[in-house]
Design goal:
Helix content: 10-25%
Shape: elongated
Number of strands: 19
Mean pLDDT: 88
Radius of gyration: 26 Å
Low-confidence stretches: 3-9, 11-21
Number of helices: 5
Strand content: 25-35%
Distance between the termini: 42 Å
Length: 396
């Protein structure tokens, strides 16, 4: 009798014995739904931090007196989701989250002027700037609604969803911050925080929008146009890589935006860097983004009054979507019968279990429970998860 036949002949008794015990089996991908963001916040130099029912997004550029004093993406919206409270497991290591979809739906509020709908990224050369040459023509009217990741400057290291347990900002927290001492860390809540440190200036806000550069490094995108430098000798203008650009089927590109329209932000989780960013957020229990655009405003001392830019709802007084999120994620777990890392359990995995059945030692592909043996427990795992989507838990 060959090895495979002997393995098969011994399965019956072993499966009966193993079936008497409780075996943990992995589940497939799940959809987590958020009716709105758990934290919504507007930051702008003249108001600090604010969270009204609706808040604007706009840019500050092509004003001589503002160069270096304000971010090009000036009025910004921060949103964050308490994914731990929604039931997404935490602290598994980012490698154990496979994000299939992250889609945000956000309702437009009232509009200033007539901002046009543009579902494409505009090159930095198309924007008028102080000291620059005439902008190149933009192929399509309007400016895009650009969503980015979120990063922090000291003393902040993350978002807080429980402001009662998070002290309001004070300047002393900046000097007290020690990256090696967690007791000095502060967490950014929906209210009681600040835009940035006293004195401010471009690229100084505590929570700021980021993309990934070509090397996979986070980069502040608040100031990216071809204006005079801001004290950084190696500053060069650049085109950012948004995590998502807002789209809708209700408005023809080039036509004005319409208040009340639901805008969809389909986060580009197919990008390896963005996939990793979202996975890290899920691992920590807090997933955040920043909406930061270059829609032109005119009178900045009055909160950007004048120009052409949108507001978005941060609350839902009439059923509006205040950054609602649908998240499809496959969480890797013990008890998955995937032997070849293709995120499903199929005939190849079943054959591997049969071939390795009865073997002992490290490095066995079919040793799903990590006991250095392929036995009836592993066989039951591949049977129960056969035909499903799952991934085995990888070590930290």
């Amino acid at each position: 009798m060959n090895t495979l036949a002997r393995s098969c002949s011994s399965l019956g008794a072993l499966i009966i014995a193993a079936s008497a015990s409780t075996i943990s089996v992995a589940q497939g991908a799940e959809t987590f739904t958020f009716s709105g963001a758990d934290l919504t916040s507007y930051t702008y130099p003249f108001v600090g931090q604010r969270s009204n029912v609706e808040e604007p997004v706009f840019g500050a550029y092509n004003f001589t007196s503002f160069v270096g004093a304000f971010d090009h993406r000036d009025g910004q919206l921060q949103i964050a989701y308490d994914t731990a409270d929604a039931g997404v497991p935490t602290s598994l290591g980012p490698q154990n989250y496979i994000v299939r979809r992250a889609e945000i739906t956000w309702t437009l509020g009232s509009l200033v002027g007539a901002p046009g709908y543009d579902p494409t990224l505009d090159a930095f050369e198309t924007y008028p700037v102080v000291g620059g040459s005439a902008p190149t023509p933009d192929a399509d009217a309007g400016r895009p609604l650009t969503l980015f990741g979120a990063d922090f400057r000291p003393p902040y290291v993350g978002f807080s969803f429980d402001p009662d347990n998070d002290p309001n900002f004070n300047v002393a927290q900046i000097d007290a911050f020690d990256p090696e001492d967690p007791s000095t860390f502060q967490f950014y809540a929906e209210s009681g925080e600040a835009y940035g440190p006293p004195g401010g200036g471009a690229q100084s806000r505590f929570v700021y929008p980021v993309d990934f550069n070509a090397n996979g490094e986070l980069r502040d995108v608040s100031y990216n146009l071809d204006e005079a430098d801001i004290g950084t000798p190696d500053y060069d203008p650049f085109d950012p890589n948004p995590f998502a650009i807002g789209t809708t089927t209700e408005i023809v590109p080039g036509q004005p935006l319409v208040s009340g329209t639901d805008i969809t932000f389909d986060v580009k989780v197919e990008d390896d860097f963005i996939q990793g960013y979202v996975a890290e957020g899920l691992d920590s229990g807090a997933l955040g983004f920043v909406l930061a655009t270059l829609h032109p405003a005119a009178d900045f001392t009055q909160g950007g009054i004048g120009g052409d830019y949108p507001r978005f709802f941060l609350e839902s007084p009439g059923g509006q979507k205040a950054a609602a999120l649908e998240l499809d994620v496959l969480v890797c777990q013990d008890g998955c019968g995937d032997t070849d890392g293709d995120f499903d359990v199929d005939a190849d995995d079943f054959i591997t279990v049969l071939v390795e059945f009865g073997r002992v030692g490290p490095g066995l592909a079919a040793d799903f429970d990590g006991d250095h043996a392929v036995d009836a427990t592993d066989f039951i795992i591949v049977l129960v998860t056969f035909g499903s989507e799952c991934c085995p838990l990888l070590p930290m």
